Amino acid sequence: MVNVYIAHYPIHFKNRNCSAATLLCLVITVLLALLPLILAIATNNFIIREKVAYEQPDVKFTNEFIAEALIGTTVKQYSTVENINKEYSSLIQNPQLTVTPFDRNDDLKAETLTLEFEFFHLSTEQVKGLNLLFYLQYTLGGEINTQFKTLVYKSLTAPLDGGIQYAQMRGDLDLKQKNPVAEGTIKRELYNTTLEDDFNDYGIRGILDLYVSRNQTTEYTAEPIITSMPANAKTTSTKVKMIIDVPLIQPVWHYTSVIQVLKLAWIEFFALFIPIYFILYVWLYGFFVKSNVA
């Protein structure tokens, strides 16, 4: 048998697209491209070093508040968001609201937030229930350097033989984490949506469902004390006082993200390596042909 060589390659190898050399080249090239991705996914969070930091968060009221009141058999809504009030002007009223931050050590971080609401209603029927929801801005500095919006939700129910005249509560605002948060040198904003957009898109129930799926949430641990009205008494306003204690030392789990970023950074530059993979493929093909891989 006589083989005719052109540029050092046997013709019968160049014309066989399904030869062993071609298939072997394809397998090696695909493995070189996919193996790093498979390893990166399989080792996700494997080499992350988790740490815990202790700091006082900076918590501020964002003036985004909405409430539902069950007055007799009618549900009445209240909001401090101007655009919501304009859009639903016939259904929503603006409550009277006072916010008092207390900064004991003058570090520009409030240790206590006191919120006082007064809900006016035209009907003299009793308030049988109240659902309160509002957003807070929660900022963590130091190595974490993260800011996000969190919410406080409380549901109040009147005794069976009366209505809600006044309610007060006091509790801590505790941070809850499903997974550690990444460190960062530049402040990152998470969950930075507005109550207006969330309310229009999901409603109150949908907002709560989305909130519990977050990685970082807060829990307001307070038991309300309700001053009820006699069954035959009538009123045109209901008051609620909420005192939120911000922990002076809040443990926050976090991790150094540099290793994770470096591990996955190659994906962003994958397109740049396509010519290299092609050159590698041609070189391997020539090598296998010279090695008589049929």
UniProtKB/TrEMBL annotation:
<dbReference type="GO" id="GO:0035869">
    <property type="term" value="C:ciliary transition zone"/>
</dbReference>
<protein>
    <recommendedName>
        <fullName>Transmembrane protein 231</fullName>
    </recommendedName>
</protein>
<dbReference type="GO" id="GO:0060170">
    <property type="term" value="C:ciliary membrane"/>
</dbReference>
<feature type="transmembrane region" description="Helical">
    <location>
        <begin position="20"/>
        <end position="42"/>
    </location>
</feature>
<feature type="transmembrane region" description="Helical">
    <location>
        <begin position="264"/>
        <end position="288"/>
    </location>
</feature>
<comment type="similarity">
    <text>Belongs to the TMEM231 family.</text>
</comment>
<keyword id="KW-1133">Transmembrane helix</keyword>
<keyword id="KW-1003">Cell membrane</keyword>
<dbReference type="GO" id="GO:0060271">
    <property type="term" value="P:cilium assembly"/>
</dbReference>
<keyword id="KW-0812">Transmembrane</keyword>
<keyword id="KW-0969">Cilium</keyword>
<dbReference type="Pfam" id="PF10149">
    <property type="entry name" value="TM231"/>
</dbReference>
<dbReference type="GO" id="GO:0032880">
    <property type="term" value="P:regulation of protein localization"/>
</dbReference>
<keyword id="KW-0966">Cell projection</keyword>
<keyword id="KW-0325">Glycoprotein</keyword>
<comment type="function">
    <text>Transmembrane component of the tectonic-like complex, a complex localized at the transition zone of primary cilia and acting as a barrier that prevents diffusion of transmembrane proteins between the cilia and plasma membranes. Required for ciliogenesis and sonic hedgehog/SHH signaling.</text>
</comment>
<dbReference type="InterPro" id="IPR019306">
    <property type="entry name" value="TMEM231"/>
</dbReference>
<keyword id="KW-0472">Membrane</keyword>
